[in-house]
Design goal:
There is one protein chain. The chain is an all-alpha fold. It has 2 domains: 423 residues, Up-down Bundle (Growth Hormone, Chain: A), CATH 1.20.1250; 84 residues, no CATH class. The chain has 17 helices and 4 strands. The longest helix has 33 residues. It is globular.
Length: 561
Amino acid sequence: MLSGSPNMLSGELPGSSDSSMRSKRRKGGWVTFPFIIGSSGLLCLAAYGSVANLIVYLVQQFNVSRIAAVQIFNIVNGCGAIAPLVGGIISDSAAGCFSVILAASVISFLGLVPMTLTAILQSLRRPPCTSSSNSCKSPSTFQYAILYISLALVSVGIGGSRYTMATFGANQFDDPKRQETFINWFFIALYVAMILASTVVVFVQDTVGWAWGYGTCLAANVISIVIFLIGKWHYKEVKPQGSPFTGIARVVIAAIRKRKLALSTNVSDYFYEDDQMNSKQMCQVTSKFSCLNRAAIVTEGDTNSDGSLAKPWRLCTTQQVEDLKTLISILSIWSSSIFLCTPIGVQSSLAVLQALTMDRHLGAHFKIPASSFPVFVLLAAAIFIPFLDHVVYPVCHKLLRWSPTLLHRIGVGHVLNITAMVASALVEARRLHIAHDHNLTNQKDYATVHMSAIWLAAPLVITGAGEACHLPGQVSLYYEEFPTSLKGTATAMMSVLVAIAYYLSAAIVNAVKKSTVWLPNDINQGRMDNVFWMLVVVQTLNFCYYILCAKWYRKQLFKCT
C-alpha cells in the first residue's frame, strides 16, 4: 500500500510515462550492491580457486618440474590479468559492461568444465608414477592441450569480468564518494573470495580430492551467473559511446596535420562541445602539452556554415584534447607501478616453493597446504582496507586536519612493499642457514628444513598491508581521472599492471635461473635470498621514480571548469 501511495497522491497513473521515467531513475544505487558484490565474489572464488593450487597440481598430477610450474603459474595469472583491458575496451566501445560480464562468466564456466574433468578422469592426466621407477612419464600432447585450453578459458573469464564488474558497480552511483566506497568494498569482497579459495578450496583439493575442489569452483561459477542475472532489473546500464580510442587518434592526427599552425591564446579560436557554447563551464585548452592544442584550433573548412563539425580528422573539441592530456599525465603514475607489482608476483610464487621445504604443521594433526600461504597477503589486505578507510583516514582528518590523498596512499604502498621484500630476504636467509647447518643441501630429495613455515607470514602480511594502500588507491585514481568514455578501461589499467607484473615475474625467474645458481630445482641448494635482495634494490629505485612522477603529475594537474 505504501509503495503505491506516491503515485496516488500525485495523481499519476501506474502506467504513465512520468511513472515510467521515475522507475528508470530509481535504477542503480545500493539496491544493486548485493547482486554485484555477490556475483563478483563467487566468480572470483571460482576463478582463483582453480589456479591458487596450480603449482602443486602441475607438480603432483602432471609431473611438471617445480620451477617450470612456477613459470606456468605466472603466465596463467598474467593472461588472466591482461584480459580486463580487452573487456574494458569492448564494454566502453560496443557491448556495455553487463554483456561483457555475462559473456566472461560463461567463458569461465566453459573453462572450468574441462579443468574439472582433468581431475576426474585419469586419461586426461599423466600415468601415476611407480615406486620401482626413478622417472615418471610426461603427459601427452592431448593431455597438455586440454589443460592449457581450460586454463586459457578460465583466464579469459577471470579477466573479462573482474575489473569490468568494478566499473559496472561504480556506474550505479553518481556521487564520487559513494563510487570510491563501492570500489573499497569491491576489493574487500575479492580478497575474502580469494582467502576462501586459498584456504577452503585448496584444503579440499589437497585432502578430499582434486575433483571435489574443482567441482566446488564450477558450482560457484554457476551460482555467480544466476545471482548476476537476478539483479538485472535493478541495474543502471551506461550505454557505450563508440570506440573511445577513435577520439584519441583524431587528436593526434589533427595535431600532426596542423603542426605548422601558430598557437593561439584567443578562446574563440578553439572548437568546443555543442552544449558548452552557451555555457560558462567551458573546457578550455591548457598550456600542458601545448602541441596538441592545434587539434582544436578552427581553420577554414573545418566547420560547416552552421558551426557544426565538417572534418573530424582535422578538428577536435577542446574536451577531446584535454582528455588525451589526462591520459598522458596519468600514464606516468601507472608506469611507476609496474615494478611495484612485479616483486609481489615473484614473492607469492616463490613463497609456495619455500613452504614446500618447511615445516607446515599446526599442531599434531593439521598441515597447512603450501599453496595457502599467499592467503596471508589477501587476509592482511582484506583487514587493512576497511581499517584504513574507517579508522586511520578519518583519524588523520580529525586530529591532524589532513587527509592522505590517493597519491600519498600509493606512495605508502611502495614503502611497505620494499619492507616486505627485505623481510622475505631475511626469512629465506634464515631458512638456508638452517638447511646448511643440518647438511640438507647435499641430499638428492627435497629435504624439509626444520623451520616453521609460519615465518613466511610476516613478509606476506606486510605485502598485504601495502596492497591495501596502493591497489584501491590506484583504481580510484584512474576511475576519477580518466575521461568518461574510458571508465571501463580505467579500472582495467590496474589489471594490466598485474598482467605485466606476472609476465615480468616469469621473465625474472627465468633470467635468474639461467644466469645464476640462485634458483636450482632444489631451492635448498640455491640462494633465493639474493633474489629478494635484488628486488629490494629494484623497488627502491622504482620508488624514487614514483616520487618524481607524482610531483610532475601534481604540477601538471588541471581540471576543466
